[in-house]
Design goal:
The complex is a heterodimer of chains A (263) and B (72). With 263 residues, chain A is an alpha/beta fold. Chain A has eleven helices and six strands. Chain B has 72 residues and is α+β, with helices and mostly antiparallel strands. The mean pLDDT of chain B is 92.
Amino acid sequence: MGLTAKSSGLNLLRETFNLDVERNNPIIALAGNPNTGKSTVFNALTGLKQHTGNWPGKTVTQAQGYYENQGQEYTLVDLPGTYSLLASSTEEMVARDFICFAKPDATIVVADATNLERNLNLVLQVTELTDNVVLCLNLMDEAERKNIKIDIKGLEEELGIPVIPTIARDGIGLNDLKNMVTAIVNQDKQIKPVKVKYSPQIEAAVEELLPEIKNTLGELSEGLNLRWLALRLLEGDQTILDSMQNHYFRENLKGGVDCYGVD
Amino acid sequence: MLLTQLPLGVISEVVSLEAEGIKRRRLLDLGLIPGTQIIAKRRSPSGDPTAYLIRGTVIALRSEETNLIKVR
């Protein structure tokens, strides 16, 4: 992991998320729906005893821990459980801003294997925002008990991301998960998630917006996912502009981009 | 009919969402799209909110939300 001018700019940004950049660890984010065993995965990987429990909003602020794999230390950040990344609640905003601005080197999405249909919505939203995603299919024992069989290979192909089955409570599959994260961080594993395509009207509007966004943001557009940003602006999402202002500027950015929202 | 009027225990199906903007987004993210099966499981003593089984998860919705959801 070479330290370039760009990555030290990123370090400044990461510091705003209370990340200890002195350690120079790869940053791994842990996302997922509520109640998928996310905090259990977090505790199993870091050896911490963050309180796990079954009620909404348990992890509103992000918890951090460390783990080692193949001689490298990693910083793992437990994001609040959400059904969405589209920032209609504090939890969603915390999760989205972290992935968007702290730019984790890899993101683990924990999904409930007994309830894939519901969980895949968030997976698609995360892969729309960042490429370096691994799906941790947790609660595989529960799935087996309910006689649910999952075609892991098929799922990997449809999503375009690696899928690791786990039973976090018993520590099963976690080594595979750690090794996959290491492979992603070391760029031994290239990931090209299958992206959602929208209607021709929306795709055309995105194309139209992209050069404007690039112009407005200048250098800042470098590390950002501009397609994703364009989609949020088309939705009229004010919160992303507020977050960008918080993380990038002290002065007013709004005037420049606001007029393209649908509001 | 509106989801608000759905009796407990009856299996129904989402026809349309009348909500717009961020409210609509929220309902979609909860898994409510046209064709989704939904069952009212339990109602709070005051009659609001009501707990619904949606795609394998029980979620409580207020009448301000269920008034925007048409089911059959």
